[in-house]
Amino acid sequence: MSMDSSIPFALLLALLIPILLHVVIRRKYSSYNLPPGSLGFPVIGQTISLLRALHSNTDYQWCQDRIEKYGAVSKMSLFGSPTALLAGPAANHFVFSNQDLIFTETKAINALVGRSILTLSGEELKQVRGALHGYLRPEMVTKYMRKMDEEVRRHIDLNWVGHKTVTTMVKAMLSIPVNIPFTKFNKGLNASRRIRKVLRQIARDMEGALQQGYSSSADDFFTYMLVLRSKGTHSLTVEDIVDNSIVLLAAGYETSSVLITFLIRCLANEPDIFGKITDEQEEIARSKGPNEPLTWMMMKYTWKVALETLRTISPIFGSFRTAIKDIEYRGYHIPKGWQVFHAQSITHLDGKFFNDPIKFDPTRFDNQSLIPPYCFVPFGGGPSMCPGNEFARTETLVAMHYLVRQFRWKLCCKEEGYRKDPLPTPKCSDTA
Questions:
Q1: How many domains, in total, are found in the chain?
Q2: How many other CB atoms sit within 10 Å of the CB of residue 301?
Q3: Is the Cβ–Cβ distance between 248 and 240 less than 8 Å?
Q4: What is the structure's pLDDT at 12?
Q5: So what's the pLDDT on residue 5?
Q6: Which of 224, 255, 296, 407 could disulfide-link to 218, CB 3.0 to 4.6 Å?
Q7: Please, where are the H alpha helices in 212-270?
């Protein structure tokens, strides 16, 4: 076939594929009332379009365009799976409380984290969620406060003190799950294997020490989970525990680092807010004894600023769940095996729920009971509330306590923005 004849053939194929896919879908789900929308090209679907929107920080508008075109429920294909986009507070409530939707994220994340709280379902999910809630309950977080305090001060002394500039940046979880060398997915898999190898050895060492009676403390995650297993609380293998530790590492570091990064960015642009936070933290420092650990309960204004940061720039742009059986929402059928996608920004930046939503205003959280249910969901909601929300609050406030009392800073960029890759990442178009 010559080059001249192959071009029309390729164009014809490009036109026929969506038509054939549409016919197949209609036959397969002929008895279903599927949401409006299109699945697009096989495997790719709307993935590239969404990733482009994330990189250009226009994902909120991307979602709004679909909502205006199709309504609060629509179908598409993301990361290789047919997907239903659900929008609004009622959708948030439906997603967080529906036991027939399991938190599976994308195929890429499943390959990276294995059998963890993100991918388990049924009784195993209940066991793991219960164990994590116990490990991260407020009393346990209070025990970790002194260690957090030490680590934050050590990090500041090492990376901030004496430095004229500080780079704050966060860098596979959102990628097309094709394992080709040098792709983001391939690099993520390789990193996951290296991390898993180290953690597996630590877990087995602790298992051996526990069996020989050498370990008496259950403060670390591995020992805690192994002790619970010996009591019959769960039946996870060591490999399963390692998988969940990877999720804890990623969730505990990445999301909190995003929040702290954008708190720093916010305070550089808001001197009045910076002053109020500093006054609060200085008062806490004066009232605290020299060996007394910090407590976040006194940092009320600082946490309001953190909440407003989470509202305007959510560390997690959205989440995916998978239907484990056919479900129905607003008269539309979502078949078993389909993904359900929802994005926090849809309600966080909606003027119906937050007046002048683009404005940064921590006083919105003076009375949180005035915020309609399931409109502000940075940590999820209902039975799907993130078990690490108190841990995230604590490590964020401890970090800000020392930063605002020791430093003043300004942004190095004349025009500073950010993109999502998939976490929000600062970008600098020009240096001052």
A1: 1
A2: 18
A3: no
A4: 60
A5: 56
A6: 224
A7: 221-230, 238-250, 256-269
Backbone Cα Rg of the chain = 24
pLDDT at 170: 42
As annotated, the binding site for heme includes 386
**Which pair of tokens denotes residue 203?**
């877990």
pLDDT tens track for 248-275: 877 777 788 889 999 999 999 999 999 9
Say what the pLDDT of residue 415 is: 65
The helix-helix angle for 389-406 and 300-312 (nearest 10°) equals: 110
Q: Spell out where 302-415 has E strands.
A: 318-323, 327-329, 332-334, 339-343
Backbone angles phi, psi at 419, to 5 degrees: -135, 170
**What share of residues in the chain are helix, strand, coil (percent, to 5)?**
55, 10, 35
Q: How far does CA 349 lie from the centroid of its chain?
A: 17
C-alpha 126 chain-centroid distance: 20
Within 10 Å of residue 288's Cβ, how many Cβ atoms?
Answer: 14
The tokens for 308 are: 């407003």
pLDDT for position 383 = 82
Confidence at residue 174, expressed as pLDDT on a 0 to 100 scale = 47
Longest dimension (CA), the chain: 83
Task: Kindly tell me the burial class for residue 120, based on how many C-beta atoms sit within 10 Å of its own C-beta (0-12, 13-18, 19 or more).
Answer: buried
Identify the CATH number of the domain in which residue 406 sits: 1.10.630.10
DSSP 383: G
- Rounded to whole angstroms, how far apart are CA atoms 429 and 255? 24
* Nearest partner of 51 among 429, 424, 422, judged by Cα: 422
This prediction has a pTM of 0.82
Q: Residues 305, 275: contact at Cβ < 8 Å?
A: no
Looking at the DSSP bridge assignments, the partners of residue 84 are: 75, 340
Strand partners, 73: 86
pLDDT < 70 regions, the chain: 1-26, 104-114, 119, 165-192, 215-218, 296, 414-415, 428-432
The answer to whether residue 177 is domain-embedded is yes
* Per-residue pLDDT at 431: 43
CB neighbours of residue 99 within 10 Å: 11
Confidence at residue 255, expressed as pLDDT on a 0 to 100 scale: 81
Pair of tokens at residue 296: 């976040």
**Is 327 within a domain?**
yes
* Binding annotation: 386
Which residue range(s) make up the domain with 74?
A: 27-428
The answer to whether the peptide bond before residue 422 is cis (omega within 30 degrees of 0) is yes
Q: 17 in a domain, yes or no?
A: no
